[in-house]
Amino acid sequence: MRALCWNGINDLGVETVGDPRIVNPHDVILQVRMSTTCGSDLHFIDGDIPTMRKGDVIGHEFMGTVVEKGPAVKKVQVGDRVVVPSFICCGSCWYCQHDLWSLCDNTNPQGELQEPLFGAQTAGIYGYTHAFGGYAGAHAQFVRVPHADNDCFRVPEGVTDEQALFLSDAVPTGYMGAEFCDIQPGQTVAVWGCGGVGLMAQKAAFLLGAERVIGIDRLPERLKLAREKVGAETLSYEEVDSVQDVLKELTGGRGPDACIDAVGMEAHGTGVGYAYERAKQALHLQTDRGQALRQAILACRKGGILSVLGVYGFMDAFPMGALMNKGLTVRAAQQHGQKYLPRLLEHVVKGELDPSFLATHRFSLEDAPKGYELFKKKQDGCVRAVFLPN
Amino acid sequence: MRDTIQQPGARSPAVPPRGGSQRRSPFGRDGQRTSEERLPQLVSALAGGALLTLGLQRGRLGGVAMALAGGGLLFRGTRTEQEPYVRRHGVVVRKFRRQRGRDATVELTVLQRSITIQGTPEALHRRWLDAETLSQVMGHFADVTSPGEGLQHWRVPGVLGKDLEWDAQVVEERPGELLRWQSVGDTALPNEGWVRFRPAPRDWGTEVTLRFVFDPPGGILGEKAVQLLGAVPAALARMALKRFKSLVESGEIPTTRPNPAAREGGYAS
Ligand SMILES: NC(=O)c1ccc[n+]([C@@H]2O[C@H](COP(=O)([O-])OP(=O)(O)OC[C@H]3O[C@@H](n4cnc5c(N)ncnc54)[C@H](O)[C@@H]3O)[C@@H](O)[C@H]2O)c1
Ligand SMILES: [Zn+2]
Ligand SMILES: [Zn+2]
User: Fold this and answer.
1) What CATH class does A173-332 carry?
2) Which of the four, A354, B23, B135, B256, has the lowest number of CB atoms within 10 Å?
3) Within 6 Å (CB) of ligand 1, which residues are found?
């Protein structure tokens, strides 16, 4: 089959690879109908997170049709149109049983690669480094989905492929981030980042009862989406001297009740701090760039909640003092998609949620490298590039 | 193993560590820049784990076995009482130097790992005894068969065309609590082990502890063998437990083989 592969840093190519096969009894093979780019892919494309190998098939946000199933698969049927969360989860370990799906104990065959960094092992992900399992990804004609009865969610009739696609990753991530905020009536939530994840976090904050949502970014087209498609107020960090001051002024001097970081380690910034971090990166002394996260900590009101969705490895100059002295609560996770999928599908069916506006560009699989180029460089208003592999 | 720690800016090792296979390295080695080179701090941290994986190749222990077998050395007995440190601290991995003859010392390799698994101690104990279980759980380094009640036959595929084999016998069994076995007769790699099941708090299930003790023979050959054994046993107990857990909890052991990729003819794990 054809598949989009990582051939090296900033080097993606469409290659011919073997077709996936049923390996374990709970596997299915999916014919991919749609797959899409995610900000998380940029981390390994840029070489900021290790354990990729030349020729790895990438992609973790996808939906498709079941074409083959293993002997132990009971609920899922050949022919089902399904959406699959990006984390592979067994459904039976303690973590899965407690709705902490991305922490699943049983799906990362190379989990020991994570031990030195995390002191523990997480679930596996499709197409996302060997430390996260080394599973072949979904920017391909076919993909193997383990634990299918647990991880495949049938897409109801009337829900389009594009609506279902983003329920794989961007929507549940944003929804989880908003749920972390424990939103009370009348509260204000600020969200750093207006990419797919940030926009969905803003939307979810409204669904969960926030009175005001403030989206922060610098890209005008994304800020526009936040205003027009989500109903958020927006703030361009390049157009103000201090994001923190503006947020305080918008909230009677208190600061937002909760702050969501939907930016991560590739944060772009302005000023001296940013120049310092870029210089460190050039000298191979890099730790993560953390402008958004630092800003969120400083802006958050006392006793507020910091919800971290952005992906990080190491960060220095972390404002621990602000966190501690202001008594903030930090909540963070990779997405627990399986927890949210049923209710998200319901929101879509009821017309309360339509994430398809994230799909700003469509490409055939053969043109996927072009799609990543646009997405990475945020050109032509690209929010998510969607691929149609078949 | 000298490649484990890299200097900032250093390239990934161009040559796989001894005994490791080229195939399974998660690090690119195709003469081009890999993501690791950009983040040396992460590299050195991750490399330890990566090499563990490399070390787990079938055949690696086989290499050790060959070294040992060549010497025609014999089992000299292993006593858990000789592990005071383990006893006192319930230590995880530890090597013990011990005198062997006038001028030879060797290290006794003890490795112990614990894991928490959903299920009762009784159910997990029964599952461990299941004829298929051991062969699946140890499949990453040995073929284990059960020729009879309380008997195990272990075979570690060799690299030089010869396999390392031994028979083990269950020497102690307490249902829902403990199972202990020992290699019997002449073997190049005398060893013993036990698995213990204890109820975990709340709804966590059972704490399962697995211990292996490898007691290589004395002399320079023994020393060498222990060095070679190095990376393997450290991960052996942990891997075995992890596989047992996945098998019991989720009904399968996670794997990516065969995995579509644009290398090695279209499939690579
Ligand atoms: N927790 C999870 O499970 C999970 C899932 C998916 C993605 N993520 C992470 O979420 C983050 C965002 O993902 P995405 O797909 O939306 O990425 P994206 O690249 O599409 O969007 C990131 C946005 O952040 C903006 N940004 C950069 N610096 C900023 C700053 N200092 N202040 C405010 N905004 C800034 C960019 O302009 C961009 O619009 C990434 O770190 C990604 O790895 C996490
Ligand atoms: Zn993602
Ligand atoms: Zn699980």
Assistant:
1) alpha beta
2) B23
3) A 38-40, 169, 173, 192-198, 216-219, 222, 237, 262-264, 267-269, 291-292, 309-311, 334-335
